[in-house]
Design a protein that fits this description.
mainly alpha, 3 strands
């Protein structure tokens, strides 16, 4: 009696959810994380929008690692799946930690953009406002870490499929049937043919056929 694999243990679902979460974390880095208002006396354009890829480059790197690890799980063996689950957990923790640092110190995350605008990493009167994206990345990072644990638990029930051609054993009924179809006795070499085939001469391959055609002979003639 076959048992149905629970939905939460299915490889496709686990991998798809993990890839989706890591992709969402990467997607947050393409949006604006910080809105910086510089002193009007120092720059012509006092408003600067800082994307997540500039404010927290580590989030981008960890998200890419998470996507690659989840995709590799589709062909990984049992031991490799444990390693991949650890990598996914680490990538999720990395996304969460990098995002929390921006939330706790947004001015530090905007230092690079401020330096490009006014030449120094900070200025008196600079105001930095957080958008919802760092908070979203923090939550997604936690979910990625949990997905790594889920991956480890579900992966214990996955099997690695191996495709191979079965080897015929002596006395195998299939071998006897194949030999009977070719006119040879069971247990004899496949090259052993019946007398009628032997009288027809050796088998003609494509090269022999071409040589006989160039000589003006019929390649189908058994002589």
């Amino acid at each position: 009696m076959s048992t149905t694999t629970p939905r939460w243990q299915r490889k496709g679902i686990v991998i798809m959810v993990t890839v989706l979460l890591a992709a969402l974390a990467f997607g947050t880095t393409t949006r604006t994380w910080l809105n910086v208002t510089l002193p009007a006396a120092n720059v012509v354009t006092p408003d600067v929008a800082v994307s997540g890829s500039d404010a927290a480059t580590a989030v981008t790197a960890f998200a890419v690692v998470g996507v690659a690890a989840a995709l590799a799980a589709g062909i990984a063996g049992r031991i490799a799946r444990w390693i991949i689950s650890v990598i996914i957990v680490v990538s999720g923790v990395g996304v969460a930690v990098a995002s929390s640092r921006i939330i706790s110190d947004p001015l530090q995350g905007a230092a690079g953009a401020i330096g490009k605008a006014i030449g120094v990493s900070s200025a008196e009167g600079t105001q930095v406002e957080l958008t919802p994206m760092p908070y979203a990345a923090l939550a997604i990072g936690i979910l990625i870490a949990l997905a790594g644990i889920w991956f480890a638990l579900a992966g214990r029930h996955w099997t690695t499929s191996r495709r191979y051609a079965p080897t015929a054993e002596p006395g195998d009924p299939d071998t006897g049937a194949a030999a009977e179809g070719t006119g040879a006795a069971p247990g004899t070499s496949p090259d052993a043919r019946n007398p009628k085939d032997a009288a027809a001469g050796p088998p003609v391959d494509e090269i022999d056929s071409w040589d006989r055609l160039t000589r003006g002979e019929d390649p189908t003639d058994p002589k």
